Amino acid sequence: MSGADMSVDVRQGVGGVDGGERLRRWRMVLGGGEADGTGCALTGRDAAMDAALGALYGGGGDAGSRRTSGARSAGLGGSAPNVARWLGDIRTYFPSSVVQVMQRDAIERLGLATLLLEPEMLEAVEPDVHLVGTLLSLNKAMPETTKETARAVVRKVVEQLEKKLAARTRATLTGALDRSARISRPRHHDIDWNRTIRANLKNYLPEYRTVVPERLIGYGRAAQSVKKEVILCIDQSGSMAASVVYASVFGAVLASMRSIATRLVVFDTAIVDLTDQLDDPVDVLFGTQLGGGTDINRALAYCQSKITRPADTVVVLISDLYEGGIRNEMLKRVAAMKGAGVEFVTLLALSDEGAPAYDREHAAALAALGAPAFACTPDLFPEVMAAALEKRPLPTP
């Protein structure tokens, strides 16, 4: 369709939207210029929104050429004040979810990561999980003047996640721990009716259409002593940034439950045990070093050495499974742990980002050992952990 034809079409209006509004929307989508065909001029707030979008997505050639040449599109340039102003503008004109997308695009397309080392930049951004990942990758290069501001940004995101995830996680896992402590003479309100009925089906009386419960099965109440041990083993390669953030928050939540002994281990080609920092997930995150190689076998060897009660232990490996170490040894360790009674869970990602890239051959090999590998959203993680604690099939997506 030619520009003139489209201009006529949008002026006619579609679906109850008058022609002027339809034309305005097309102009915002097309971005202006001689070829947009609308002939519509923007004013006021619309013009300001268009300028903020154009500074990131318009002009200066395509995104690939900008990344290659190091040039930036018109509107932001290399000026920190301009970037700070732009960050303020997009927070004014767009909802938080859109702001987060635009910030990620700005970091990727325009090479703005280094500007995040400046405190005034961090104060202007909209905090989210992806921004935390970027800050963690810059941690070692971050000047002292910026570190406190960066910690404040990370803490804000962590507190938001804890508020969203902690209560449901504790409730779900407390129920799982209670159910795992079965008793044979339960009080009435502790009876597990589903299991009791299944166990007494042989006592069904057709004439009364009822089951006589000769044997009652009930939920035990979990005592304050440790019932289960959980080891979170987290790949801290660059592609796992969001997973590291979520896993650190969940690790802190698990550590706050007295009936679960939680250990948190992060690895690349080296291993760092961050268990003693689990009371503060921000300390955990700043103890990570995103990037580098991957030696899953070495990390699992360390985790295996810390298992004292295999039948009461759940090991959660969070990794894309791109192994730089000894593949066969890694698989042997998983088989040995499962043979000893350990519940082994492999998560390819712990995030909301959809299907991750991962080593399919290693995933298939783990599945053959009875340790299926799958991506998991933060909302599903409590259910996965509950199933593992109860030794029942995992709710794979």
What does this structure look like?
The protein has a 6-stranded mixed β-sheet. The protein is built from 16 helices and 10 strands. It has helices at residues 3-12, 19-30, 44-57, 63-69, 80-93, 96-110, 119-124, 129-137, 144-180, 193-199, 241-255, 281-286, 296-305, 327-339, 360-368, 381-389, and strands spanning 182-183, 204-205, 210-211, 218-219, 228-235, 260-267, 271-273, 313-318, 343-350, 373-376. Helix content is 49%, strand content 11%. It is of the alpha/beta class and 397 residues long. Residues 1-15 and 60-75 have low confidence and may be disordered. β8, α14 (327-339) and β9 form a beta-alpha-beta unit. The chain is globular, with a radius of gyration of 27 Å.
Percent strand: 5-15%
What is the overall shape? globular
Mean pLDDT: 80
Could you describe the largest sheet, including whether it forms a barrel?
A: 6 strands, mixed
DSSP summary, beta strand count: 10
Uncertain stretches of 5 or more adjacent residues: 1-15, 60-75
Please report the number of helical segments: 16
Distance between the termini: 43 Å
Alpha-beta content class = alpha/beta
**H-E string:** HHHHHHHHHEHEEEEHEEHHEHEHEH
The helix fraction, in percent, is 40-55%
Strand order of the biggest β-sheet: 7-6-5-8-9-10
Rg on CA atoms, Å? 27 Å
